Enoyl-CoA delta isomerase 1, mitochondrial
Amino acid sequence: MPYVCADYSKYKFVNVCWNSENGIATVTLKRPPVNSLTAEFLRELSSLLLDLEKDETQGLIFTSEFDEKVFSAGLDFKELYRPSIDHAKEFMSLLHSFSFRLSCTAYPTVAVINGHAPAGGCIIPLCCEYRIGLNNFNIGLNELKFGILLPDWLSSLMIHTIGSRNAEQAILSGTLFSSEHALRIGLVDEIAPTKEVALEKATAFLNKAKIVNRSLRLDAKLHLRRPILQEFQKDIENELAKNVSLLMSDKVQQSLDAHIKILKEKRGN
Ligand SMILES: CC/C=C\C/C=C\C/C=C\CC/C=C/CC(=O)SCCNC(=O)CCNC(=O)[C@H](O)C(C)(C)COP(=O)(O)OP(=O)(O)OC[C@H]1O[C@@H](n2cnc3c(N)ncnc32)[C@H](O)[C@@H]1OP(=O)(O)O
């Protein structure tokens, strides 16, 4: 059984619960109010994956503290509104490296999606091997509606998960799917009535992975995910520069401004 070396209490935006009997780490995202992804959060998540790898985690479950409300609201609008060029570069690089790392972990991964997961909020679930949703939430890649062209690696993750035909329709229409619809197209693998049941199902999935030799399993995973991993590794400098210039463009900045205003009006402030 793995011996836990890392100090997981150092993390600000996640709570890590280790099960010493089965070596499964349950990671609860807890960046208030909606787990939106900032550079600091992404840096923390990347470092967490390395710690889990060193501690020979047998399986990882992601879930959210903001139960029945939001899994993750995606990229942080406020941080990405009028960023400095250096910050924009750093952010895109962190998003890319974290998503890559999560897509090829040596240990199996599950997302328990206990709330909305729009746009960038769908990235963690898509990088995981298995997705369990709760009822009454929306999930999907609706970036085109913000004037954002998806990076190739993200389209590739969606294609890998729901197939090319469904991915084409989903991405081009910018649809956010209800849980039931997400189950029909394979965007989630199961629906659970409560978070507790979802966590049991996640553990059952991870336990199944244990009967396979760990290094053989990793070889197979990397082989099966090769098309995605190739997209991550293809022409990285150029891809990051493209994303930075898209983020800095007037069109995307105006769209961010409009969305920030909509959220403010919704709260009446
Ligand atoms: C932007 C990227 C630009 C260019 C990218 C270039 C290249 C491509 C690279 C990557 C591709 C991936 C791209 C992804 C784009 C995104 O992810 S953009 C974010 C998309 N997310 C959304 O549209 C969700 C918006 N939020 C909501 O719909 C609701 O807030 C939500 C359903 C999540 C929760 O609803 P509710 O419980 O009612 O809460 P409130 O709406 O009242 O919100 C509470 C507070 O949270 C703040 N907030 C909400 N979402 C965000 C966010 N994404 N970023 C920052 N802050 C957010 C909201 O303002 C409230 O704050 P307040 O309490 O008023 O201070």
Remarks:
- The domain at 14-268 is CATH 3.90.226.10 (2-enoyl-CoA Hydratase; Chain A, domain 1).
- The beta strands are 14-19, 24-29, 59-64, 69-70, 109-113, 115-118, 130-134, 138-140, 177-178, 190-192.
